[in-house]
C-alpha cells in the first residue's frame, strides 16, 4: 500500500513538472510576439539600472535610441543606421578575461610568477 502512495506522488510530481514546462514555453512564445508587431521592432536592449533600459527601436524604418525608466519613455536620439555586432565583436565576459589572466600568471613549466612551484594544484 505504501508503495502505491509513493508511486502516486511521483506521478503527480512528474505531471506538475511537465505542465510547468509547457506553461513556461507558451508564455515565452507570447512575449516574443509582443516585442515585434507590425512596423515596430526592438533591435537591442541594455539594462542600465534596476528598472531602467536603453533600447534601440525600429519604428516604420526610423531607428531610435530611447531610454525607458519608471518615469516614462524618452527619445534620446535618432540613429542613421544600426548594425548589431556579432558575439565575437562584443567585449569579452569576466570568465574569459579571468582565465587569460590566470594563464599569464602561471607559466608553462608549472611555476608561478613568485617562484613557487605547483604540482597537482599544491604549492611545493
UniProtKB/TrEMBL annotation:
GO biological process, one term: bacterial-type flagellum organization
Family annotation (Pfam families): FliO (PF04347)
Transmembrane is among the record's keywords: yes
Residues annotated as transmembrane: 6-24
Localization annotation: Cell membrane; Bacterial flagellum basal body
InterPro entries documented for this protein: Flagellar_biosynth_FliO (IPR022781)
UniProt keywords, alphabetically: Bacterial flagellum, Cell membrane, Cell projection, Cilium, Flagellum, Membrane, Transmembrane, Transmembrane helix
Gene Ontology terms: cellular component: bacterial-type flagellum basal body; plasma membrane
Protein family per UniProt: Belongs to the FliO/MopB family.
Protein name, entry field: Flagellar protein
